[in-house]
């Protein structure tokens, strides 16, 4: 008897034994006619067993997961079309889809999500940071770096301070725990910001400023949060340790990014006819992530700088006065890979949702609104001239929290910190609320005339 026949036999025996223990009136399970009914019920039972999770399983069967993946991809494509038509991002819809297939339907259980976090987070982080660096212009960064740094310092300090005060006085947490919560959600998500600003008809100066700011705050939040994790465990905090850790992370990121990025520009030029040169570039990117982690850096800055080198090859070679064959990475393949990672990332954040205590839900919403109010004040204070009305509006609503916050939210729980189970619940609602605020804000921003004067709010993304 093969495996399929054995499964059918077991299913029929299971249904038969049920009716033998719980007979219906005037029912004879040995009647030939009943055999047909039993077979039909057995098939139904076997089908349910195939499409649902097994006992103790944390993830649904492969067909159901593939169905979920199909829905994510289709919604991702439709969402991009929706964004181009309306100017309203699809981020919130994909996150809600994650809530549906995770906490609501239970295709993926929370315990499985926590297990997946380190792997998916690493992949999403390096792909998106590389893409962000690849699409940044060094010339624009140099022109807007001072604005980006001002936004980083003021925005990060305001967000950490606001959330810390709310957590201390609203939830009754200790100051160190409250500051840790504020740090985790202190910066905007580079994954979301990179994807949005590339498609908006704001000035190149504003695009560069917002992209660079989000990359810096992602890195800053991650580094400071890990220092605070140790501080909460030991009960002590050192400014010297903070400065030393930040300095080491920046040095490692720049040395690896520049040290490998510049030589790779020359190597990839010689491999212009190689069939798998883009995959080879990804292989080098993954290696850089491993090396950065080995030397104590998250890998985010390394991936960003590596992408920056390859994306600005023509600019750098011109400055160095070196001539090489004209070659860029396969933009069509790169855009597809980036699209897949982004779409699944937003759904992944929805999988982290937890609806435990109502006060955490309220706190998350209020904290996101407070961050938004602070952002408006900072925007009008820092961007006093040189930016259009649309630039300022988009800057003021660009507060989405994302990957860094979602990943960092799970660490207090795994480390056994006080209030560890509260971090994922609170931070999910801060992420969701901040994304909704950004979505609504960009929807209202489309009424403002673009700096160029015509052509609509959303622009088509062109390959380099």
User: Can you tell me the CATH class of the largest domain?
Assistant: Mainly Alpha
Distance separating the two termini:
60 Å
Radius of gyration: 26 Å
- How many structural units, i.e. domains? 2
CATH architecture of the largest domain: Up-down Bundle
Low-pLDDT residue spans: 47-55
Structural class: mainly alpha
Q: Tally the beta strands.
A: 0
CATH fold field value of the largest domain: Na+/H+ antiporter like fold
Order of helices and strands: HHHHHHHHHHHHHHHHHH
Name the average pLDDT: 77
Task: Count every helix, treating DSSP H or I runs of 4 or more residues as helices.
Answer: 18
Helix content bin:
over 70%
| Biggest sheet descriptor | none
Strand content: under 5%
Given the C-alpha coordinates, what overall shape results? globular
Characterization of the model:
The protein is built from 18 helices and no strands. It has 464 residues and is mainly α. It has 2 domains: 3-42, no CATH class; 65-445, Up-down Bundle (Na+/H+ antiporter like fold). The N and C termini lie far apart (60 Å).
